[in-house]
Write a structure and sequence with these properties.
Elements (H helix, E strand, L loop, with lengths): L12 H13 L12 E6 L5 H12 L3 E6 L6 E2 L12 E2 H11 L2 E5 L7 H5 L2 H9 L4 E3 L7 H14 L6 E5 L10 H11 L4 E5 L8 H4 L4 E2 L2 H5 L4 E4 L22 H4 L3 E3 L12 H4 L6 H22 L1
Helix pairs in contact: 1-6, 1-12, 2-12, 6-7, 6-12
This protein binds phosphoric acid mono(formamide)ester.
Length: 311
């Protein structure tokens, strides 16, 4: 695996899930593999799970880890040919090559600005590191994808499936801030490649892109989508038009224990209680959110192991 910036960089998803579950059964069984190797993680945005789970994953493989909050560093320039007479102090062309001298793998977290759709779709920060770094790059969540989360979600689905062709519903939920489409997009990409019946539910105007959802039933009626669900994945995302706006007027799309029924509940976290989902769901026995967060370790550990073995 040269880079990991999309769930599609994993060619055989079920085989990868099996291998991740082997790692989970004995996390330190490959603790010599990463000896003398270093993971450098660059955070342009905050994190709890991604930072800590990826650090644990690297330590399980014997790697050393260095973390840089990029706001503590020089502000980087990403445009080719720019005259750097304003606020940026260092170009990514130098920065990525320098960090590659210190790192065997580079992880980058860089959210979208949610102001310019075309600019966000270019995922300029992660793509620039892929272009100029001389070591593998892992997306720790980019402008359009969160592949480590999606792989952890795939592991969680496999672990908790009780019958064949389980019904998985991805439903939009309200949120006071505009959020990216990275998590729902990567979740859809993962589940499309698995043996589940996927449905999507969202209010009108929150379509996720025809190429992504082609062939998947999409409902504007949340109740209808939730009928007979085995897994309910709840996530807010902001619309493509007007891009990055906050959608109001759908507070009743909050997930409740009543709506959840007998299904198992999933969310990538962090989650706003009693806005996105009510307490009774998160505190109930059908919630898988802590399992998903635990599986973030083995998602990252699988990817790092692949990179250490296949370089
Ligand atoms: N789910 C997730 O990526 O969590 P963090 O933003 O805390 O890393």
């Amino acid at each position: 695996m040269k880079h990991y910036t999309s769930i599609d960089d994993i060619t055989d998803l079920y085989k990868a899930v099996s291998e991740a579950l082997v790692l989970k059964s004995n996390p330190r069984q490959f603790s010599d593999l990463g000896k003398g190797k270093r993971l450098v993680m660059l955070f342009f945005n905050p994190s709890l799970r991604t930072r800590l789970s990826t650090e644990v994953a690297a330590a399980n493989l014997g790697m050393e880890v260095t973390v840089l909050n990029v706001t503590d560093s020089w502000s980087l320039e990403f445009d080719d040919g720019s005259t750097m007479n304003l606020n940026t102090s260092e170009h990514v062309k130098e920065a990525a090559r320098v960090i590659s001298l210190y790192a065997d793998v580079i992880g980058v977290r860089a959210f979208p600005g949610l102001k310019d759709k075309q600019e966000d779709e270019e995922d300029k920060i992660i793509r620039s590191f892929m272009k100029h770094a001389t070591v593998p790059v892992i997306s720790l969540e980019g402008a359009t994808a969160h592949p480590l989360q999606a792989f952890a979600d795939a592991i969680t689905l496999v672990e908790n499936t009780k019958r064949s062709r389980s019904k998985v519903v991805l439903t939009w939920a309200p949120h006071p801030k505009a959020l990216p489409q990275a998590v729902p997009s990567s979740f859809i990409r993962a589940v499309k490649r698995m043996e589940f019946d996927l449905r999507i539910a969202h209010p009108p105007g929150l379509e996720l892109g025809h190429d992504l959802t082609d062939g998947i039933p999409v409902f504007n009626d949340q109740g209808k989508a939730l009928e007979d669900a085995d897994f309910v994945y709840v996530k807010n995302w902001s619309p493509s038009d007007p891009y990055g706006s906050v959608v109001k007027g759908f507070d009743d799309w909050i997930m409740t224990a009543d709506k959840l029924g007998k299904a198992q509940f999933m969310h990538c976290l962090p989650v706003r209680r009693n806005v996105v989902v009510e307490d009774a769901v998160l505190d109930g026995t059908q919630s898988l959110v802590i399992d998903q967060s635990e599986n973030r370790i083995y998602s990252a550990q699988y990817v790092l192991k692949e990179m250490l073995e296949k370089r």
